[in-house]
Amino acid sequence: MKLANVSLLLFATATACGGMGGAGMYTAARPYPAAPSAVAVERTPGTTTEDYKDTGKNPWIDASKDHLSTFAADVDTASFTVARRKLHDGELPPPASVRPEEWVNYFHYSFPRATGTPFSIVMDAAPEPFAPDRSVLRVGVATNPIDNAARKPAHLVFLVDVSGSMDEPTKLPWVRASLETLVDHLHAGDTVALVTYAGDTRLVLPATGMEHKRDILAAIDHLRAGGSTAMASGLDLAYDQAMQGLAPGVTSRVIVCTDGDANVGPTSHQAILDLIAARAKAGVTLSTIGFGMGNYKDSLMEDLGDKGNGNSYYIDSLDTAKSLFGDKLPSTIEVVAKDVKLQVDFDPSVVTAYRLIGYEDRDVRDDQFRDDKVTGGQVGPGHQVTALYEVKLAAGHEPAPLGTVRVRAKAPDGDVSAETAYPMAAPPAATFDGASPDLRFAFAVAAFADIVRGNPDAKQWSLGEVRELAAASAGDSAERADLVDMIDKARRLRGASEADATTSAAAARSAR
């Protein structure tokens, strides 16, 4: 019998904190398990305990030596909403918190409807507005959205951290509001169970159908904080509850609400990762969702999501929670394809060098693209995965497609990947202004992220010029207008340094 896909959705919350964080090195207020030694970790100064993992920046690649660029799909958006919350609170996002692909993938772009495969694809390119010797390439894949009424029945297990650290205005109260929103969008055939953990672990509500919706909402409403945190034991009980709900044609998912401070039991960084990895092999996936500021464990949440073959989100407002658990509920809880990997095959006669903006922690070796033991990303209905490249084109080349994109993915309950190739259908646009608004806006988002994280490759860019690109391609979208407002906030925070950057960028380009 085929088992339904099981997913773990992890909510991470953090203590609200005032003051200017800045982007310097971070010092933890209390010990916390270190991130893997291969990466650096930034921590906020003084009274905060936030962790962010710096995964580096992709270098320029000589296409004649390596014409393949391979990475796992990423539909996470946590990095973007963390940045939005930081800017709203009057501080720049820590550079290590910035993952450009999550900023780009926060926004919606136009895609044709997929036919014959789970994915539709968009590839377009144009000369870069900031460097005459470079072009911008956009590669995007998307799945068809579905209505909430058309999704599979869901068996959900809410695992809620009710330790004392959750007793903050943007923590447990926001968790309750988020879960209530989710329950309000469930329908007949769905079930919910509720597990809490603090000093001990307790099954508060066994699997309950939507005919008893009042009982589910009452159990959520009665959640109160107090005690210490035993994350590992809570995960064990939640997984056990999820496994009991396995059935063909049913989505079984665990939703964990926590601030990430696991300090009781076998809760070292590696011990929890080992626990999640073991469950992932059994078909259980994990996703993380964060709330608040101050002690947000982004490095842990990202590691858990990656190890569990899941997703990572961050809730910076109740409006965001309502969108994620209301309008976007099918993509939040259902899986269309798993272990999704992309490979861009550049034509070295056209592209001499390329740089992928972001996806550093989603890198896959080229020889692992067709290795089904190597995991990729999880994609739900209506998800979009967009990647931006800077490319250098061969001198005197004829207008021609830059290459081919290949996508490999498994069915939600499958073990063998299917592969599809998509040649780039058209040559680059003649000018940047002549490119599609989606390409122009996506590049503005990626450039904004690259500047904020201090990428040396973005030194010829300025926030003022990026703002102009974003505003010109935002159209009447309120979501895109929000990005322009974020750029304005970042420019004010950067102050004189931004004015100097604009002058230096213009001088550098005029000297080319």
Poorly predicted ranges (pLDDT <50, ≥5 residues)?
1-8, 10-46
Global geometry: globular
For the sheet with most strands, the description reads:
7 strands, mixed
Head-to-tail CA distance between termini: 64 Å
Helical stretch tally: 13
Derived from helix and strand composition plus strand pairing, the structural class reads: alpha/beta
Strand order of the largest sheet: 10-9-8-11-1-12-13
Residue fraction in strands: 25-35%
- Average pLDDT metric: 85
CA radius of gyration: 22 Å
The total beta strand count reads 19
- Helix percentage: 25-40%
Commentary on this structure:
The chain is built from 13 helices and 19 strands. It has helices at 78-88, 100-104, 172-184, 213-221, 231-244, 269-281, 298-307, 318-327, 329-333, 437-452, 463-473, 478-494, 496-510; strands spanning 6-14, 40-43, 51-54, 61-62, 68-72, 119-127, 135-143, 154-161, 191-197, 201-209, 251-258, 284-292, 312-315, 337-346, 351-356, 377-379, 384-393, 403-410, 418-423. Helix 7 (298-307) links the parallel strand 12 and strand 13. Helix 3 (172-184) runs antiparallel to helix 4 (213-221), helix 10 runs parallel beside helix 12 (478-494) and helix 11 (463-473) runs antiparallel to helix 12. The radius of gyration is 22 Å and the shape is globular. It starts with 5 loop residues before the first strand and ends with a helix. The model is unreliable at 1-8 and 10-46 (pLDDT under 50).
Short description:
The protein has 512 residues and is of the alpha/beta class.
